[in-house]
Design goal:
single chain; 5-stranded mixed sheet; alpha/beta; 15 helices
């Protein structure tokens, strides 16, 4: 909110630019007149702003469109060929670095597994090298990378710019992630908690469904978190750690967690907890990885399926707590555990939740799986960067063209 501050001509122009480029991204290809109708701006204003965008290279003309009564007009779209952003997703046992265009489409990516040995400093240095390599490849293809975003496990303190705790991995709280990435990549860098990034990825693709409502994205991966969007805005809390449902208790006298709480949700339903329990129950000669335990479920191994179902039941308890706390219209479930057997998970969770909440609440909400089939968080990290570009296009393109 702007409080008591008014709007000058420059800020009005910025808002109009943001509105039009956001509408164009959603429409894909359309005519200037259509943008004027959607935005309720004057045709001359739209034309002037689009001319700026075309001169900057962020928008391009794409041929003729046939409208009503056979009238033809020039189609325009976002230029997804010449600019890009880097998206990074940091996990406890892996990381992903991706190159995205300005519409949020994945162009190229690298996903790397992380062994138990390397320290956070060594891992972070590898991430920076991967990002630089993708930037070089983009440049060879005549695509300029202009910003980067990184999604990280929480709790992450925006005030301190540090990860406060990464369960099972020590040392990340000593690294100033945003500051170092900005210096090394020579780009504006934006940091977001991973579940928040996942929520933004869902909202980006289905805004019309979610706007004016409460959306909660449940990230069930190596940790468990919730990204909460209300009326288009992320709920972050006073220092940016809202939504850390993985550290809410579902068993008050359960084992103590590194966060200081007892019986934390993530110790009962994360991919790490699931993999650990499958190994304990099956006692294989060689310890199974998460992907191997997931394959057992997909192949119908009875014991692995039972453990997966138990994990879904435990996650359902956390989801019920979220529902009773935030009364969302939409719950979306994503990340590693959601990719094992999506239909099976969704059926089980819906059944559990329906039994545990008031009928009126259940009737007025929707539970679904992520619309982003791969890694919602790395997409969300890129979208965080794109959102800043769309909010301040002049900052990114005007100086360059001038």
């Amino acid at each position: 909110m702007r409080g008591n501050h008014g709007y000058n001509q420059e800020s009005i122009q910025d808002m109009n630019r943001t509105l039009l480029i956001s509408l164009l991204r959603k429409e894909g290809i359309c005519a200037r007149a259509h943008l004027a109708n959607l935005s309720m701006l004057k045709q001359a204003t739209v034309t002037n702003i689009m001319n700026d965008f075309i001169n900057w290279g962020v928008v391009k003309e794409v041929g003729f469109l046939v409208g009503s009564k056979g009238r033809r007009s020039i189609g325009i779209s976002i230029n997804n060929d010449d600019y890009g952003v880097i998206g990074i997703r940091l996990g406890r046992k892996n990381y992903t670095v991706g190159l995205f265009d300005l519409s949020g489409n994945l162009v190229d990516h690298r996903r790397r597994e992380v062994d138990a040995g390397p320290k956070p400093r060594a891992i972070f240095d590898k991430i920076k090298r991967e990002a630089k390599d993708l930037m070089k490849l983009a440049k060879q293809g005549e695509r300029k990378v202009i910003a980067a975003g990184i999604a990280i496990p929480g709790p992450y303190s925006e005030r301190r710019g540090r990860i406060e705790l990464m369960t099972g991995v020590s040392g990340w709280n000593e690294i100033s992630i945003q500051e170092e990435l900005t210096e090394d990549l020579q780009l504006p860098v934006f940091v977001e908690q991973d579940a928040n990034a996942g929520a933004l990825a869902q909202y980006w693709h289905k805004e019309e469904d979610y706007k004016n409502n409460v959306l909660v994205y449940i990230a069930d991966g190596q940790g468990v978190g919730a990204g909460i969007i209300s009326n288009g805005e992320l709920l972050k809390g006073s220092i940016g750690v809202a939504g850390e449902i993985g550290h809410t208790s579902i068993c008050f006298n359960g084992p103590k967690c590194a966060c200081g709480n007892f019986g934390c949700l993530e110790n009962y339903c994360s991919s790490i907890a699931f993999t650990k329990k499958v190994n304990e129950e099956l006692k294989p000669e060689k310890e199974l990885s998460f992907s191997e335990t997931a394959k057992l479920v997909q192949d119908g191994n009875e014991k692995a399926v039972d453990i997966f179902m138990e994990s879904c039941d435990n996650l359902s308890v956390g989801i019920v707590n979220v529902i009773n706390s935030f009364n969302p219209a939409f719950i979306v479930i994503g990340d590693d555990m959601a990719h094992i057997a999506p239909d099976l998970m969704l059926e089980r969770i819906k059944k559990d939740v329906e039994e545990r909440v008031l009928p009126e609440i259940y009737a007025n909400m929707d539970i679904s799986m992520s619309v982003v089939s791969s890694d919602s968080m790395v997409h969300g990290a890129a979208i965080v960067a794109i959102m800043d570009i769309f909010s301040h296009p002049g900052k990114y393109f005007e100086q360059e063209s001038g």
